């Protein structure tokens, strides 16, 4: 059955070819011989066409094929034939039913291919006999009439013409070998722009670019034009290589989310570039539409037209290549900032292109900002964000947990905005970790609603700087306020600061006085013999015996005794101190360094109070003796005068020292502590965030340290002051010795004036003291007078030496006050020398 169908098809094709040859107007009137050579060639050509299995490169669309044929006829200047074809196609397409052709586009495609083969044969001067005669051109038959046969001029009758034909064929051969048509160069340029080597234009690694082979003979202008156009391929190769290299390194190396976004944005731009190249490649196959039939049509896409098409892609590709070179070693915020610098351009095309690119590139960065500001989450796997976190303890979270990475801060985010972003996320983490608070989540939602944005991803992007600032400002304002409320209300920050002022800065007078009274005997012992537990019990006694007992139990529980490191010879006074246990989150403010400075201030104030306590004790010893002078009436006048002189010198020196200590203590307690505390309270009320609160406390503590002579610039003055304190304490011991001796002298004098019966009784009462070595009681009147005179003379010399040394030290101390930097220290000079006594007595002052 299949053989019969095949034979039937063969017969139909023979009949078709026979009819076409018989209708050929150029053929003779004689009938066509089916056994002739022409018939055999035509039949073979027909079979070759019909048996071709090549798949068309176009879509099966009859309308598109018809439009292409009509356009070809129009470009060849055959307008009338184009109109005729259009009319015939409309009739052909509208015919349906029995006898109609179903596969219309295939018929049209067949006719188009046959016409194309005919044109190719004509340009190559092929014999018209290889074509179907009905499709041959009249010009071919005219050439036959002029002696052309099978496309070659017969030269048998003209031997001289043979050399001319050979020369022409050689010229054509040289042209084919060495000259390239422009449409071929256009095709190679399009290949080069896709990073592909063409037939003539190839990539040269030595020249680092696409070059046209030197063997190709083209005009110099054409070669320059090809080189300029191929710059686009070189740029494309660089951009494409960067994308491939970055994606090959991921995730083995830290390309980063911003780098991935940059590669994705470049890939999108290359997709648009690919579309343009596809359009240009399609247009390169179409000839130029011409109206005149006399002008030969060329390819539509020439090198000059290609340069016009490449103008805009060249600008974009150059920009992308520059960005690729710039960002090759950058990542994260640094990459976004570098790209942003190229967006400051006056060309609207460049500006819009960079804006579109930056919106894609900065998307991960803005998402990090949103997550950090509203959730406190640092989603930065590849270290691209300008906020850097590090693992620290809870007390160091605020100061050391997070910091700004200046190298990752993009230029479109200002330093002040970056600081607000850092503080907002840090506040959320501080609330979550240190304060164990969850109220910040509602506050963040309110902030996003107030800023007109949402908490979902992708709500911010490049170019929305105002929206970003609004969101950050609203979030910072609300979260900082919530944090301060938690610190002040839940954790009672102000009450703890007041407790430190009252106990560590000795502002609670009754507590300090009672504590000093009960621990004084214990602290007079060597430091290595003192029990910390006993001191803790004495501290508890002092609290219960003063108004401190009414304080919050949580505050009193934090107050403890601390013994500082001590060496051989140290007394309890030198190592005793109080400490305050500041727990989380208050230890963010009261850090170890801050508490060390508080301890330094406490040691200074404690020594000042000790000196004052010593002077008060000396006064208690001295005051009752002013009414006992009548007991010495029986002493010799010289001894009596010496005694009165020694007592007077001791009391004058005490008054001088008491004046200095009282004014110094007044200055410290009121001019330093109270004024600094008042300023601290004022700044605490206006603080808007935790940084402001920390700065206010730091200023408060710094003011106390500087005004109390404990600063770095007042070290010399502080040493002089401590020497004065030691001298005053030494005076207290001398005063105690003096009045102890006077007590013994008084007792011996009173005994000598009693009757004999009372003397024995007094001796029995004072028997213990009389047995002591060096006691005056058991001696006679003469020896008593001699010993009293010697004792008073030695005490007078000691007091004179102390007075002289004290005057010298005080003069040196006062002389240093005017040169101090702090103005309040000059005010201390005014208080100490209010009557200008020291100024008149000391010329150097």
From TrEMBL:
Coiled-coil annotated spans: none
Ranges for domain Gamma tubulin complex component protein N-terminal: 186-487
Domain spans labelled Gamma tubulin complex component C-terminal: 495-838
GO molecular function: gamma-tubulin binding; microtubule minus-end binding
Localization per record: Cytoplasm, Cytoskeleton
Entry keyword set: Cytoplasm, Cytoskeleton, Microtubule
GO cellular component: gamma-tubulin complex; microtubule; spindle pole
Signal peptide positions on this chain: none
Chief place of localization: cytoplasm
Region annotation Disordered: where it falls in the sequence: 750-776
GO terms (BP aspect): cytoplasmic microtubule organization; meiotic cell cycle; microtubule nucleation; mitotic cell cycle; spindle assembly
Keyword Mitochondrion (UniProt): no
PANTHER family named among the record's database cross-references: GAMMA TUBULIN COMPLEX PROTEIN (PTHR19302), GAMMA-TUBULIN COMPLEX COMPONENT 3 (PTHR19302:SF14)
Family the entry assigns: Belongs to the TUBGCP family.
Protein name: Gamma-tubulin complex component
Species, as recorded: Lithocarpus litseifolius
Lineage: Eukaryota, Viridiplantae, Streptophyta, Embryophyta, Tracheophyta
